[in-house]
């Protein structure tokens, strides 16, 4: 089933996961998922590089500021990139896979259109995928000639985008950032930073409260001024409304990586989450790995629709409807 994530309901849930994941890149939240294999980095340790001196405090602050600004640029650029997302959900922290779902995400101007591609190793049929492309074209036509509902959703989308930007801008205040040297990972050398909660920080939102319970390690590409990887742990229980609304338990772990998909644009490539908690009276667990591949710039809806139309025409010529 095709999902158009431009309005309420599931789009709200997906956006909340997006805002957490983006913020995690800088400092370490835990409630989302996303993208591409991390073969060289998954759980391994890089080689410490000791010959080069570390930056001064002012230089470190300038580096973080540059990374934040570049992250904002990449966040905006992502709204014009389609990508393929594969989410693998496990039962607990063991190897047993509960579901393996692959879908294509096409930007719609106020969200994304999700086109299922495969589930548990079984690809969708050509006829089903053709129907998905037709639906995507109709959704993009609405974006080009917006209805009143689309305009209302766009206002909400713009507000959430603004909130996310503000959240990333102010999040540095929540942590004490310590230089931990440089590490060589494959052919790349990255700066390694330790993030610990600043006891003087006063959260200004319920989401920001999470920062007080997270310890993380952040890797940065100094030359490009880009966040490359973050890995962290929940070191104490996170409660909401005094524990009545819910709780995230101590011991959770997350990891996120991103890489350059086009010059100057770094986007997520893999997320992993192993988190346990409780929502009201019901327990939950999030044990997911999401890989994102095949980033492609398709532009705004007026440009993206031509890409989808071309694919639909080619697919129809190759395999006519039966």
Quick structural summary:
The protein has 322 residues and is of the alpha+beta class. The protein has helices spanning 10-26, 57-77, 126-144, 148-171, 301-318, and strands spanning 3-5, 47-49, 81-90, 97-107, 112-119, 122-123, 175-185, 188-197, 214-221, 226-234, 238-240, 246-248, 253-262, 265-279, 282-297. It has a 15-stranded antiparallel sheet that branches.
- From the structure provided, what is the oligomeric state, counting identical versus distinct chains? single chain
Helix percent band:
25-40%
Low-confidence stretches: 6-44
Total strand segments = 15
Note the total helix count: 5
Number of domains: 1
> What structural class do the secondary elements suggest?
alpha+beta
Mean pLDDT: 82
Strand coverage percent: 35-45%
Largest sheet: 15 strands, antiparallel
Task: Give the termini distance in whole angstroms.
Answer: 19 Å
Order of helices and strands: EHEHEEEEHHEEEEEEEEEH
Radius of gyration: 20 Å
- Label the overall shape: globular
Polypeptide structure, described:
The chain has a 15-stranded antiparallel beta sheet that branches. The protein has one domain. Helix 1 packs parallel to helix 4 and helix 3 runs antiparallel to helix 5. It starts with a strand and ends with a helix. The longest helix has 24 residues. It is built from five helices and 15 strands. By secondary structure, it is α+β, with helices and mostly antiparallel strands.
């Amino acid at each position: 089933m095709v999902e158009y994530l431009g309005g309420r309901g599931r789009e709200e849930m997906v956006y909340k996961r997006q805002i957490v994941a983006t913020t995690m890149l800088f400092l370490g939240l835990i409630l989302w998922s996303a993208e591409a294999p991390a073969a060289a980095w998954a759980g391994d340790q890089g080689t410490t590089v000791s010959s080069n001196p570390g930056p001064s405090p002012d230089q470190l602050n300038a580096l973080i500021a540059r990374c934040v600004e570049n992250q904002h640029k990449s966040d905006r650029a992502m709204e014009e990139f389609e990508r393929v997302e594969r989410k693998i959900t496990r039962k607990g922290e063991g190897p047993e896979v509960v579901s393996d779902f692959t879908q294509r995400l096409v930007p719609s101007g106020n969200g994304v259109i999700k086109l299922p591609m495969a589930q548990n190793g079984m690809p969708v049929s050509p006829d089903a995928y053709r129907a998905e492309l037709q639906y995507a074209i109709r959704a993009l036509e609405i974006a080009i000639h917006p209805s009143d509902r689309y305009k209302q959703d766009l206002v909400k989308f713009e507000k959430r985008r603004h909130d996310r930007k503000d959240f990333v801008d102010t999040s540095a205040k929540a942590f004490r950032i310590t230089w931990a040297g440089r590490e060589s990972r494959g052919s790349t050398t990255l700066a390694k930073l330790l993030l610990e909660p600043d006891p003087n920080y006063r959260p200004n939102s319920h989401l920001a409260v999470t920062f007080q319970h997270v310890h993380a390690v952040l890797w940065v590409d100094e030359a490009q001024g880009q966040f490359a990887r973050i890995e962290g742990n929940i070191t104490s229980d996170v409660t909401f409304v005094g524990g009545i609304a819910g709780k995230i338990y101590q011991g959770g772990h997350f990891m996120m990586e991103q890489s350059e998909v086009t010059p100057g644009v770094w986007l997520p490539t893999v997320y992993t989450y192993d988190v346990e908690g409780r929502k009201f009276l019901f327990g939950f667990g999030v044990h997911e790995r999401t890989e994102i591949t095949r980033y492609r710039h398709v532009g705004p809806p007026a440009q993206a629709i031509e890409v989808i139309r071309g694919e639909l025409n080619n697919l129809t010529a190759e395999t006519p409807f039966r």
